[in-house]
């Protein structure tokens, strides 16, 4: 199995090094090849997504990605900015399913802004569709308002749309993810108001026939937003469209209060995926050896589970992370009094040790 390693910029190389170390400690035979991306890609060959990097990502069975971006590139033309590499990879690899777990380890319950009893032990997965919805629907723009009380004035407009195949494929990803967890799936929509999301609901209900072992329920997005704060542990897997998923996944991530802990995956139709921490390249702490590598290490665990079919090894990594937290080891971002502050490398080493 071949893994493309794309460390990127800022803290990217530091945290990816730790994840690679953990992968190497599993006793598996992975072929790993590293290539520059983002600002590093621009420095190496004048483009944030160099051709050779894209070729490697296409050939590989999975991509482990650090983070890209640095303020020093803010003056470049937009197509040359580091962040364009992510969009290019999503487009070229056909990555349409974004998986964002929000997990709050009991040891970090105080990191959340919500009461510990509401969030402690939280473990939910948001599956967000990435390629459709109002973000990409045509037509869109500003035009003359054709009717109603504001007729003749300028109006801004977008088009919300989902093709049946687009809904089916994300529904399959979500049902299969639910099968690997506690077999409960909530589809979030706004079917009471929007035609697109009545259609979404109908198609998800139809796909459900292929997954009788998964319990499906439907929830309006406004209620879902409320329940995520009121009783987030009621959820297991949530599937929703691009815009609702954008908002709800950030909301769910912040329930945990610890950006350095959250992994993510973006999958194609064959479960090939790009795995990355949910945070950015943190230029403010780059090179200091203090970044939290756990989100990247947990992204590697997701890669094993979703793309490389090695669920047991994924469990091993996740359990090792739980163990180091239980030992009281903390990087600066999750440190609290009474725990032991460690750096990036020490944290990586502790996870390797805990694997045993
Ligand atoms: P950021 O996520 O990089 O940092 C936000 C804050 O969180 C900073 O204070 C940072 O030090 C801290 N932080 C982030 N990850 C951490 C970790 N692992 N351990 C400890 N602390 C951590 O967001 P930003 O500052 O808004 O953006 C910085 C750069 O990252 C920008 O160029 C932005 O475009 C880019 N970015 C890239 C991605 C990506 O590569 N997928 C995502 C978001 C932002």
Structure description:
The chain is α/β, with parallel strands linked by helices and 356 residues long. The chain has two domains: 1-96 and 268-356, Isopropylmalate Dehydrogenase (3-Layer(aba) Sandwich); 97-136 and 163-262, 3-Layer(aba) Sandwich (Isopropylmalate Dehydrogenase), CATH 3.40.718. Helices cover 39% and strands 19% of the residues. It has twelve helices and 14 strands. The strands form three sheets. A ten-stranded mixed β-sheet has the order 2-1-3-12-11-4-5-10-8-9, with helices on both faces. It has a two-stranded antiparallel ribbon with strand order 6-7. Strand 1, helix 1 (12-24) and strand 2 form a beta-alpha-beta unit. Helix 1 (12-24) crosses helix 10. The longest helix is centred in the middle third of the chain and has 16 residues, at 164-179. It is globular. It starts with a strand and ends with a helix. The mean pLDDT is 95.
